[in-house]
Design brief:
Elements lengths: L1 H20 L4 E2 L3 E5 L6 E8 L3 E6 L6 E9 L6 E11 L5 E8 L3 E6 L2 E6 L2 E5 L6 E5 L1 E7 L4 E6 L6 E6 L4 E7 L8 E4 L4 E5 L2 E6 L5 E5 L4 E3 H18 L9 E4 L6 E2 L5 E4 L3 E5 L5 E6 L8 E6 L2 E6 L2 E4 L2 E4 L4 E6 L5 E6 L9 E5 L2 E5 L3 E6 L5 E6 L8 E5 L4 E4 L5 E3 H4 L4 E5 L4 E4 L5 E5 L4 E7 L4 E4 L4 E5 L5 E6 L4 E4 L2 E6 L2 E6 L5
Antiparallel strand pairs: 1-3, 2-3, 3-48, 4-5, 5-6, 6-7, 8-9, 9-10, 10-11, 12-13, 13-14, 14-15, 16-17, 17-18, 18-19, 20-21, 21-28, 22-23, 23-24, 24-25, 26-27, 27-30, 28-29, 30-31, 32-33, 33-34, 34-35, 36-39, 37-38, 37-42, 39-40, 40-41, 42-43, 43-44, 44-45, 46-47, 47-48
């Protein structure tokens, strides 16, 4: 009997060890992905094959754990079914740490920093990344996580409730709850200090994450067009009475994000603008000063602080029923930082256009519109000059770019670093992908076609991996010389000297040391 028990125990032990060390990924054929331009030797990628298609992957950027979402497909391989599994892979060994079944019709994985949450029907489960076990489960959909304090803020899953709850993520224990409107989402969230979180929604709410204590600054950041809805419905009734075909609107049109960014000044106070005013609030919630704004003209705005002056750039648009839309009028205003005294408020004569982007160089404000650039002097808000840009078909100006991380192809072996060669100029990207280069006087210096421009995807101190189309990649050395050209999928990440990319059911690993 004792002998049989030992045999049974041995079988169980082998089973446990097998479960801990089995490989979910099988070895595939190593693949030549390119040739090192320095050594002339082919560069190999190790291939690992998953038993199912890799639907999604999750990595926190530092650990050896790679979470794969594996999912079955139909017989033709053209669509996914609901069945699959989660598999946590150790990058160095490619061994599987754990796995668990997954129903994709009712469940999804959400990664927030180092945390992996399994949303399953009406519950949210925190998974242990080392074992896959459920650490705890709750009914919160997390809006914000503070990793240093290990606290998450969330609202009930599949509910319109505005009851916000704070939870200790280590234990799943509720810390406190309070009512905070989320009807149109949060405009912004920012840690003011080690324990106070600022949430911008209908003003500012400063909440101590440890105990839920709060002060609030209320402001107008939403506009409901109830009168417009009533008028629309009256017309609908009249048309219905005449034609027997009625139409009506049961919810008013809503404009949101009628506010600015949260700007923290050198004294730790908060500068914030809404539809009708700009204010400076201290860390206790006391309004130090406020200054009125033209409510009918105000919209989404941007605040910047330079020396002792707060500048407000009213952008001339807002979120209208959830979509960006022209609203209000662009204008530029300036206020004294210490007392809120208005220095100027100048209209920008663009009634049918809004500000796409802006940048500041010295005392000059550059504003980007759909088809032109204009400059204004910050000291007095006065117009300096503008330059019209010739647009291609279906093209609009998009944004000012910073040159860091952008490369321009010189030839097959060399690239220019735009931070070096164009660092003193203004770069403007269009919706078609080309870049316009202008000097501070708005004279065009160069026009770069999309085919010549490459953006950095990943970089380490020795190398940069760049692309222009998310399928053809170039590896540059520290002197911007080409080390290798290769094809891969955009599902790519770099862990130490190993480059990984995922394609269908395959994980590829390239040791970048091969290039030297």
């Amino acid at each position: 009997m004792k002998k049989l028990f030992l045999i049974f125990l041995s079988i169980q032990l082998v089973g446990v060890l097998w479960g801990q060390t089995k490989n979910r990924l099988s070895d595939g054929n190593d693949t030549i992905v390119g040739t090192s331009f320095k050594t002339g030797i082919p560069v190999m990628a190790k291939c690992y094959i998953a038993p199912l298609s890799i639907y999604q992957w999750h990595w926190n950027g530092t650990s050896e754990n790679l979470l794969l979402e594996l999912r079955e497909t139909n017989k033709k391989g053209t669509s996914f079914t609901k069945k699959g599994m989660l598999s946590m892979i150790e990058l160095e060994s490619k061994g599987e740490k754990w796995s668990r079944e997954m129903n994709y019709n009712s469940s999804r994985i959400v990664q927030q920093g180092d945390y992996f949450f399994l949303n399953d029907v009406k519950k949210n489960i925190l998974l242990d990344p080392e074992t896959g076990n459920s650490l705890w489960e709750g009914r919160l959909d997390f809006y914000y996580i503070e990793p240093q304090m290990n606290i998450g803020l969330g609202y009930p899953i599949e509910s319109t409730s505005n009851k916000m709850t704070a939870m200790n993520l280590s234990t799943g224990v509720k810390l406190w709850d309070k009512t905070l409107d989320r009807t149109y989402g949060w405009d912004d969230a920012y840690m003011l200090n080690d324990s106070i979180l600022l949430i911008a929604v209908n003003g500012i709410h400063a909440i101590n994450l440890l105990n839920g204590k709060e002060w609030s600054y209320n402001a107008k950041t939403v506009k409901k067009e109830i009168g417009k809805m009533i008028g629309f419905n009256i017309v609908g009734l009249i048309v219905g009475a005449l034609t027997d075909s009625y139409f009506y609107q049961n919810q008013p049109d809503v404009a949101t994000s009628l506010s600015s960014n949260l700007l923290i000044d050198p004294d730790g106070c908060i500068l914030y603008a809404s539809r009708d005013k700009i204010a400076r609030i201290n860390t206790k919630g006391k309004v130090l000063w406020s200054s009125s704004l033209p409510e009918k003209k105000s919209s989404t705005s941007s605040l910047i602080l330079i020396d002792s002056v707060v500048y407000l750039i009213n952008r001339g648009y807002a979120q209208y029923n959830g979509e960006p839309s022209k609203m209000g009028d662009p204008y530029l205003a300036a206020f004294s930082w210490k007392d809120g005294n208005q220095l100027y408020l100048n209209a920008i004569p663009e009634k049918n256009e809004y500000i796409r982007h802006y940048q500041v160089i010295n005392d000059i404000l550059f504003l980007l519109f759909k088809d032109k650039v204009a400059t204004f002097k910050l000291s007095d808000g006065l117009f300096i000059r503008e330059a019209k840009l010739a647009l291609q078909k279906n093209e609009e100006m998009d944004a000012f770019l910073q040159p860091e991380g952008i490369f321009l192809k010189q030839d097959d072996m060399h690239f220019f670093d735009m931070a070096v060669d164009y660092g003193n100029y203004n770069l403007i990207r269009s919706s078609n992908g080309r870049i316009i280069v202008m000097n501070d006087s708005l004279e065009m210096i160069d026009e770069l076609s999309k085919e010549k421009i490459f953006f950095t995807v990943i970089a380490n101190p020795e190398q940069a991996i760049i692309t222009q189309n998310d399928s053809d990649f170039v590896v540059l050395d520290a002197k911007n010389g080409v080390q290798m050209v290769f094809k891969a999928s955009e599902n790519m990440f770099l862990y130490e000297d190993q480059l990984y990319f995922i394609d269908k059911d395959r994980l590829f690993e390239i040791d970048l040391n091969q290039l030297n």
